[in-house]
Design a protein that fits this description.
The complex is a heterodimer of chains A (625) and B (619).
Chain A lengths: L2 H6 L14 H22 L1 H32 L6 H50 L9 H13 L2 H24 L7 H46 L1 H9 L3 H53 L5 H44 L22 E8 L9 E8 L4 E6 L5 H8 L7 E6 L2 E2 L5 H6 L1 E4 L10 H6 L10 H10 L2 H6 L20 H14 L4 E5 L7 H14 L4 E5 L3 H4 L4 E6 L2 E6 L1 H7 L2 H10 L11
Parallel strand pairs in A: 3-8, 3-9, 6-7, 7-8
Antiparallel strand pairs in A: 1-2, 1-4, 4-5, 9-10
Helix pairs in contact in A: 2-3, 2-10, 3-4, 3-6, 3-10, 4-6, 5-10, 6-10, 7-9, 7-10, 9-10, 14-16, 19-20
Chain B lengths: L7 H22 L1 H35 L14 H53 L10 H43 L5 H23 L2 H4 L2 H11 L4 H9 L3 H53 L5 H32 L2 H9 L21 E8 L9 E8 L4 E5 L6 H8 L7 E6 L2 E2 L5 H6 L1 E4 L10 H6 L9 H11 L1 H6 L20 H14 L4 E5 L7 H15 L3 E5 L3 H4 L4 E6 L2 E6 L1 H7 L2 H14 L3
Parallel strand pairs in B: 3-8, 3-9, 6-7, 7-8
Antiparallel strand pairs in B: 1-2, 1-4, 4-5, 9-10
Helix pairs in contact in B: 1-10, 2-3, 2-4, 2-10, 3-4, 3-11, 4-10, 4-11, 5-9, 5-10, 7-9, 9-10, 15-17, 17-18, 20-21
Classes of the chains: A alpha/beta (625), B alpha/beta (619).
Chain lengths: 625, 619
Amino acid sequence: MNCVAAMSNMPTEAMALDQRQPGWRGLLQDLRVLKRGLTIVSKATPRTTALYVVIVVVLSLAPVLQVWLMKLLIDHLSLRAPDGEMVTVLIGLYVLTLLVMAGLQPFQQSLAAWLEDRAVAEVDFRLMEAGVRLTDLVKVESASFQDTLQLIREAAYHPPRLFAFLQQGVGTALTLIGLFFSLIQLHPLLPLVLLAVTVPHLLAERRLNQRKYKTLAEQSRAAREMEYCATVTTDPTAAKEVRVFNLGGFFLERFRTRRDAALRQVTHIRYATLQKSAWFGVLHAIALAGGFSYVAMRASTGSLTLGDIALYLNVVIQAQSRVAILASWYGFLYESLLHLRGLFAFLDRAKPTIALPDGTGLRAPAQLSQGIEFRQVSFRYPDGNKDVLRNLTMRLPPGKVTALVGANGAGKSTLVKLLTRMYDPTSGQILLDNLPLHAYDLSSLRRRIAVVYQDFARFALTLRESIAVGDLGIDPQDEQVERAARWAGADSIAAKLPAGYETHLTRQFEGGVDLSGGEWQKVALARAFVRDAAFVILDEPTAALDAEAEERLFGHFRELVRGKTALLISHRFSSVRMADHIVVLEDGAITEAGTHDDLIARQGRYAELFEMQAGRYREPGLSST
Amino acid sequence: MASHTRPFRDQASETWRLGKLAVLLVWRTSPKSLIALLILVLLQAFLPPLQLVLLQAILDYTAYNLSLAPSLHPWIAQFPLLTWIILAAIVILAAIVLAASQLAQPFIATFQSLIGDRLTGHVTEQVIQAANRWPGLMRFEDPSFVDDMQRARSRASRGGLDLVIYGSRAIVSLITAGGLAFLLLSLHPLAPLVLILATLPSMAQQWEYGHRTGSHLYWQTPEARRLEYSRDVLLTPATAKDVRLYEIGSFFADRYMTIFGQTTGVIDRLRRHLSRRMALANILSASVVALVYLYLVSLVLQGQRTIGDVSLYGGAATLLQLALFDLGADIGILPGVFSFLPSLFRVLDAPTDLPLSRTPHRVPRPINEGFVFEQVTFSYPGCTTPVLRDISLHIRPRESVALVGLNGAGKTTLVKLLLRLYDPTQGRILLDGVDLREYDLVELRKEIGVIFQDFVRYELSARENIAIGQIDALYDQEKLQVAAVLSGSDEVIQQLPHGPDTRLGRLFGGSELSGGQWQKLALARAFVRNCQLLILDEPTSAVDVQTEYEMFTRFHTLTRNRMTLLISHRLSTVRMADRIVYLAGGSVQEVGSHDQLMKRNGEYARLYRIQAAQYLGHN
């Protein structure tokens, strides 16, 4: 295992994956995780798994049979008058084992690969199911989730390892036990003595690995620092700044210091581990030599046959390589189980947090009749230390455009999340047509809301698909998609793309094209317009658009939202002016509300903020009030 | 997967070439460990044949002592004690060999890991140094090169260790096979040849299997990445909201299943086909080994060979077969293990991307005439359409120039040329009459300060984040303090748990700042830098009204009497500049002060009126 690489993928202090309990409890936990990991695939493909197990068992026991046959063969050959027939039978059987092993081995390999693929897919399916179960963002946006996510992605590659372990670990153990027990007829204690030396060796290896990984976990921060220095200097994102500010040398030095420190630590660990392994190796060798001398003594007195000597020696030689394999695979298994424990903990905890109606909730209306009302809504993020919204009371009149203004961090985006039930308020209620949001069927509710987020998603799909996913009910080839694109101004994008609407977006995959910020915004807008929504929310929809594009959008915005209820969040007062109703959000509460002219006349906060922006457009000498 | 099937000869020569480069790389990193590893590996390789020989000797001498077989060497019969002594010696030797086999593995594993650790660190360092050698942006904006860098970096960690492990395994297999073949010569001169020939089909199948179906870790196929994308879309915060709102989780799940079904179907069939062929080849090879056993047994029955020989030659034949299988498989895997090396070497060998003058000019302090664009045309490498056409422009000292234009007009590109992140395709840019290319690049850039629209939020301390503006000033407390006050960052820093030494950013569990707070830090960077030209690229597009208003006054302090280039959408910000340059379609359309351009009634005036009308109504 590459320590340095492993270090950057280890759990940090902050991520307490299911803590491993020491001693016997820990072992039981491990077995349960192992069983669950294997069951994931065996349930999906029971016959193939059974076939694989059978092949592994056959191939594991074959060497034991071979060793035994060889002993019998040698015994018969060393008789003064060897029985030709018996010899033929024995050699025939021996040849048979050779052929069977040779023929089965490729199938073991390909079956293992097949099962490994399925394992990856099964885990991915469960991860996706978990994602779908998490219908709200409470867990997804939490800090610990972010930390866990990277680990989970790593962990997804470990179930396949379990199958390799079945073969390398369990199979090898089977061979080893078989080999040792074939020594029973030499002396009943012999296998126990050998086991007594091997088992502590393996357990010690395991403990060594545990200690190694614990130390590595502490070092993982150093490894991530190194990784960060490397990323900053080699990733395109920071490239221009690194050059302009001449930071290359700074980060290189930083990298070097941390790398040298990390290497020193890791080297120390490795040598310490080696020392301990070496001691055990010597111990093991002494025990082998002891057994060997015993066999030799008995052979010299004639109480053992030649075949027995051959048996003992062959067993020892064959056992050796297998002990080494077993020891290293224990290390791998430990790491895999660690990851899997985290993975399963994640899957088990992936449940929605918001309150869902028992049975089916109400259907959301196609058009709002009473509008939306916030009644004394307070909200605090799960890992936040203060309320983002405090006793907020606000009305969004039906069929009208309401604009929401306020400083960054005042809670505007949070409001949007509450409206779409990505979170539920900590206290208070949000009513839609006089009924609380949680009375509605979640799916039905969300289908009636269209949102263009400030940080909308840029999907790696074709242009058409990126828009069409706004309404999964329609056929992507439907005319509606193109109509929505026209409204948003995205048709001009299609016109200049090499494959028009079928062009793949984002550079993530080959043949994909990247769009500018403004173009992405138009795609997000088109996606929102495809929906037949009752309620439209636009969060900073024109941040990346220039004056002309902004003008064009608002030109037919009113037509687009006619009959619908709309919420517009913007700090460009130019857009806000056009709303029917304006609401000012400050420090988590609504401080002013009314039309633009009302609020200007009031000379309050709104008027102040408006003047800050508009003032600079005035020609000198022509100031308003 | 099909793209990875190439004729064996090409594969072999490529693998050989990369193997040599890999060995050189490892040698440069940790020569001592490499030598130690090679010695250990050699030792380990010779152990199996040695074990077999000792086994044979033990059996034969014991047989003789038990009077089961005639003496091997006539003169030994005269010294019965000698045989016991020899036997004892052989037994002790055997014990030592067994112990050596036992100990070899942990030692080898340790040295492999030591080399792997160092290799990772070394390779990463080399890549960073290579990146630092490119003063321009060309490589970072070239998609295939960025791919190479990605691959080199992501595989460097695992790849290094795998190189060492699989490489040493291949060497062990080769040497062991050689030793065993040598042993078999004494059975019959043709024996090794026959065995090797019989095993060649198996080796070829092993190679083909390893090379065509190779482990997923190495190939990182586009399909695998698409699968990962479909899976991750539900869990990454960037896409989380949209996916839930539009309920497209099932859409992506279906997509995953489709891609998975397609790709695994192909691979499954391939694997089954190859397995059948491999099984047949293996049986052929095993049959020849069986023949060796039969031959030996018949010889023993005829009294021409000893029992020990059965063990020796039979064992040698079996082990030779296994060693050759392993060799075949390793040769099949090695190309995958090496697959990141070409990318790595392309990155390390890439030369500088901007011509640097051998006799650089000193940068004038102070600048007298300013920056002049002389008929500059520019197209990005690989593109035919120019982004900037025939630009002529003069930025004078103590003057503020604003650059406006619609998205895609070329404003950011102009800035990149000014910073010499690219060189013009035609024309030149002069500083005080001398082409930018004649100046020492690092010195030149020291005189220019930038706040980019997408400035970087470094995962460093607050103090370091400010010192980024002038990294030599990292320990100049006073300078940093002054910059913090002028930019308003001092208020931000006071609220942090550990003050200026607080780590910022999520990656290392640091404190998170809001967009506005980060903007102040970025502003501090500009205050720290003693530059003669300041470039502000959309400095307030992300902040709210209140913050923007406050920053305005600070900007004034920052840019007073300094040569400034300002890019902004907000024509209200721009109108304060001394001169405004309106870009459209890559060329300069209008130049003048705000009043001049309004009087001219061109494009600028039209845009200005649109924006103003949005606030003030159509008067």
